[in-house]
Amino acid sequence: MGIRLPGMLHAKQMLRRSLPNSSTICNVPKGYFAVYVGETETQKKRFVVPVSYLNQPSFQDLLRKAEEEFGFDHPTGGLTIPCNEDMFINLTSRLNVS
């Protein structure tokens, strides 16, 4: 009983095409989640933030803004927050202090 090598290679190629690009997959530590921040598609940057931010009213305001703009259909496949990067960094730095 032999293994058909061409069939296995074809299956591996199909699987590779169906999975996200490995360069876009990054591990997110337990207790954190990833968000994409930016006002345009070319400006989007990925941030990993603690889930404790979900309890903060100022972060909840950003989530409401994201819901109004995107609903539950986020173009990057992850949570997209439509604000500029400087504003997001300013907000999260204040959350880190409290």
UniProtKB/TrEMBL annotation:
Any single GO BP term: response to auxin
Family assignment from sequence similarity: Belongs to the ARG7 family.
PANTHER family: SAUR-LIKE AUXIN-RESPONSIVE PROTEIN FAMILY-RELATED
Full protein name: Auxin-induced protein
Organism: Macleaya cordata
